[in-house]
Amino acid sequence: MFIIMINFLQMTAIYILLGWGVYINYRMGQLYYGNVPMMAIGAYVSAFIVVNIGWPHWLAILIAFGVGMLISFIIALGLARAEAFGTAIATMGLLFIVQTIIRNLELVGAMYGLINIPKVSYLPLVTWATVFIVGFIIYKIDRCRLGRAMETSFVDRDLADTLGINRYWLGVFSQTFAGTIGALAGCYYAFTIAALRPDHFNFAILLRLIAFVFIGGAQTMWGVVFFTPILWGIAAFVPSEIAAWREMIFGVLLIVILLIRPEGIIDRQLIRVINNKIRQFQGREPIGL
Amino acid sequence: MNQFALEVFGAQLVNSLAIGSIYAILVVGFNLLLLIGGIFQYAYPHLVVMSMYICWLVLMATNNNRILGILAAILASIVINLATEPLFRPLVKRKASVHTFVLSLGIATIAMDVMNRMINTGRPIAFPPQFSGLQSLVKVGIVTISIGQFLTIFGSIVAMFIFIYMLYRTKQGRAFRAMAQNLFVARVLGIPITRQRILSYAIAGLLGGISAVFFAMTLGSVWSTIADILALKVLVAVLLAGMGNLKGGLISAYIIGIIEGLSLAYLPGDWTNAIVFGFVIAIVIIKPKGLFGLRA
Amino acid sequence: MGKNNKSTLLKIDNLSISYGVVNALRNISLEINKGEIVTLIGSNGAGKSTLLGSVLAMHSVDNGEVIFCGEDITHLPTERIVASGICLLPEGRGIIPLMTVLENLLLGGYYLNKTDLEKHLKYVYERFPILKKRNKQQAGTLSGGEQQILSIGRGLMSAPKLLMMDEPSLGLAPVMVEELFKIIIDLNKEGYSILLSEQNARKALQCSHRAYLFETGNIILKGTAEEVANDPMVREAYLGMEWRKNP
């Protein structure tokens, strides 16, 4: 039971990190899934370092962080120019390429994967600390000029250009950011699961990710936060007969949400309402809607 | 040695043309849904694979009745595609094209799950040789091709011609072209927009069903995971030509087919798909608007 | 009252339309009788295009009614309204550039059967020989004036009872503008009722029977073409004539 709980906490944290990666790019109107291939890279790099080279976990994570940042930066340089569908397809293709490379690399165990990755007892602490730090960063980004620039790009691209917003570098930043935290998520994944196989990093993760982000609400960062545990909880805590159908449940929920409330369950309006309620409670003035 | 190499090359060329033909039909269907239906239907190939599964089920149930199998595939594709129309309609009304992509991912998830769980307990399905025509070989010059490949290439060309005829010589085809170029004017002229949209789903379904049949003939067997790979490759062809570019799409479909066919022949198997996808990443980076640009 | 009823072709009653929070039209009431040329004048953004579009149910209506030949068409789908005999020549001609002249004309007769289609096509070709001459040419390569003629020809294909034109003279050379208004008058003589929206107020008022002046979604003046043309405010703002107080 304890193990299930830990697993649930870990996977939730990982999916929140990945979900934020999708969110921060969607803020600009881009559909970027590069964080999933980065997750694979991060997982394998950190696992390889710990298992085959024997360095300590924290060093492996650091190196994977650096590698992830570098690779996603390079890719972002090219992809930040493209429009929404282009980046989506390119990054999905990237996932497949990474999967193929891993599958054929004898160095990391090819099809059979990397095993015997030692567990770390305080991993959940580190993972969730990361979640809070990243969440804080995103919260700050949303509120500063960067966030407003992204918002403008989303609403009106030409307007953003005339205002001097450099959409290209903004895109490079978002994509690199997303890719880097994807790599981090990959490290935590590797150390949680303790055995990696290339087909862990498949399209099913992508589809799940999109479901979590868009059901929860892609307009704000809170959609990801609240609905990842709820939706992942369905997978983890529901009786196993129903759990087997979870992909279909996610798909159906996604379709239903898109039909009746495409902004997602938690949208900006709701946040404002909640914010005002909090302010009322504190005795402060409510912000106009 | 030379003769043999030439034969191998010839066989691979035929294979590439067959693959390219299937992609061509799917590109046309996809672009139709994009320009007229107004949706980015990532799950289009998934619905094609589902039709193949249904064809197989019918074949099993009717003791390999070819006619019924083909009819089942085509009918299933049309019905399933039409069934997705009401799901997309609210998003199309709002012109939320990114959300149509997300919706199509949801549909893809469900389709994959249905195929993985409910049909043949998720194992690959194999089409009987009489259906796939893979065994019957014909020698054309120095090249040996299967009946299945021959029908695929020939049949696709016929299908394309019929489609283009429809587009240029019928009232509905003209309406499609008008809608693709200026939706407001098309509406002002009294073209029944919603009806035309639903028609585009039906035609896309028809094309999907036809390609399902050809796919079964050239491949001989199918497994559900092929759907995502197929989807990416079709989208590669679409992006290569520029989204919405019908004529360019046909050309790029065959280009992708040739790249894939030749990689299959001369490179270790697993890398074929990776090369195709590497190609699309390069295209997206270098020429985001596609080789031929965006044009109806 | 009886005679008025019979000859009222189009009646718009208290129509209000808004885009989100913006009021595009506020309580618009106007009517067109059979055989009339009615002009809407007013500056850009005054709501003229919105009004023409709303007759074809292109916009969602807040309140009000549109009645055509006695039938309430306010909430009918656009294709039904077009099929019942109203035709709009949109602003900027609205021709489909990558289709031939002939194909554009055929689009105009979408609901006709084969015999009617051929008959109407023949009529349009006779009336506008230039279209026959260029019938295989891509419509996007025509000159501005030719495109306007194509737009009109396409509109005539469906033999409409009411012809609506949105800024037909926009972007045309002066010679072509003369030609255009001559065509409009001729069409009217042949029996077509025409609702015109124009920024070229002078020429439009010269050939119309009645007119309405639009400003920010309201009708601020209406009357016969002469009355409107002689109104001092109109003379100064739209006809470019200096307004001098009577000494």
Offer a quick outline of the entry.
The complex is a heterotrimer of chains A (289), B (296) and C (247). With 296 residues, chain B is mainly alpha-helical. Chain B has helices spanning 2-37, 44-61, 66-93, 97-118, 129-132, 147-169, 171-181, 183-188, 193-219, 226-241, 246-266, 271-286; strands at residues 125-126, 137-140, 143-146, 221-222.
Write the layout of secondary structure elements.
The complex is a heterotrimer of chains A (289), B (296) and C (247).
Chain A: H1 2-26, H2 35-53, H3 57-79, H4 84-104, H5 123-143, H6 145-155, H7 157-162, H8 167-193, H9 203-216, H10 221-237, H11 240-243, H12 246-260, H13 268-282
Helix pairs in contact in A: 1-5, 1-8, 1-9, 1-10, 2-3, 2-4, 2-8, 3-8, 5-6, 9-10, 9-12
Chain B: H1 2-37, H2 44-61, H3 66-93, H4 97-118, E1 125-126, H5 129-132, E2 137-140, E3 143-146, H6 147-169, H7 171-181, H8 183-188, H9 193-219, E4 221-222, H10 226-241, H11 246-266, H12 271-286
Antiparallel strand pairs in B: 1-4, 2-3
Helix pairs in contact in B: 1-6, 1-9, 1-10, 1-11, 2-3, 2-4, 2-9, 2-10, 3-4, 3-9, 6-7, 6-9, 10-11, 10-12, 11-12
Chain C: H1 2-7, E1 8-19, E2 22-33, E3 37-41, H2 48-55, E4 63-68, E5 71-72, H3 78-83, E6 86-89, H4 101-108, H5 114-127, H6 129-133, H7 144-156, E7 162-166, H8 174-190, E8 193-198, H9 201-207, E9 210-215, E10 218-224, H10 225-230, H11 232-237
Parallel strand pairs in C: 3-8, 3-9, 6-7, 7-8
Antiparallel strand pairs in C: 1-2, 1-4, 4-5, 9-10
Helix pairs in contact in C: 4-7
